[in-house]
Automatic annotation (TrEMBL):
Residues 1-21 are annotated as: Disordered. It comes from Virgibacillus subterraneus. Keywords: ATP-binding, Nucleotide-binding, Transport. It comes from the Bacteria. Transmembrane segments: none annotated. GO terms for molecular function: ATP binding. Residues 28-269 form the ABC transporter domain. This is Phosphate ABC transporter ATP-binding protein, PhoT family. Pfam families: ABC_tran. InterPro entries: AAA+_ATPase, ABC_transporter-like_ATP-bd, ABC_transporter-like_CS, P-loop_NTPase, PstB-like.
Amino acid sequence: MNSAAETKHVPVPNTTIKPKSRDSKSIYSIQNFSLWYGSDQALYDVQFDIPANNVTAIIGPSGCGKSTFIKALNRMVELVPSVKMLGSINYNGKDIFSPKYKVEELRTNVGMVFQNPNPFPKSIYENVAYGPKIHGIKKKKVLDEIVEKSLKGAALWDEVKDRLQENAFGLSGGQQQRLCIARCLAIEPDVILMDEPTSALDPISTAKIEELVQKLKEDYSIVIVTHNMQQAARISDKTAFFLNGEVIEYSNTDELFSNPEDKRTEDYITGRFG
Ligand SMILES: Nc1ncnc2c1ncn2[C@@H]1O[C@H](COP(=O)(O)OP(=O)(O)OP(=O)(O)O)[C@@H](O)[C@H]1O
């Protein structure tokens, strides 16, 4: 085992080389971030900035560390007891792994949407009102407004406004995924992390989510893991290509897809492997 892995987390000073794409404010800055599951290293020296109000796509073959990376951004990865990390991830200028950092700050500012829609076994209304209620909002009028605004934000309102008290499981898969996005919007996050949000959906539902992502970036910063390179090319502004736990290339999406710098990126995007 690398001796660095013995340490739960060691921050590094803010003196690392900056990635080339830095044309807007960064919401995350990742510096020399490595991660181990027990003695198996899953991420190696990951280093790039994630810009605000952009869609950043994470692509790469199965097992290259995409999900691990996105789950590090909200510290969900720590739920695996054997995890050890080195380096730092700054969110809004603060190291999220610093002992002083309050994880609640991440939980309220960073929402997550998963591969399979996972609504609660509750009504459509309660699914969206749940987070605000946990945050202490009790007035029905305020909750009604949040529910309407969030469902509109997730482009679902028109389809469900007359059936808000019905069970969320009665919605189609694509509607359930948009409900999960509405649930995320209800807590007014800055960032939405999406881990393959359309891989369980049909092409029409996928197109709706892609259109929605484009709209959401006006107000949110979005990081999306996707296996689908066409999707990354269609909807993202920046793309990071991961391979065997390393970031091989990080660039503007149109540059990475039209003129990749690294042969391995070229091989992957042209379907030679993965
Ligand atoms: N909870 C865990 N415990 C141990 N090892 C894990 C765990 N989660 C992931 N790994 C390992 O970490 C590596 C990266 O996995 P990860 O799920 O992040 O890859 P991925 O790129 O998201 O893959 P996929 O596209 O198949 O979802 C893999 O070798 C995987 O086996």
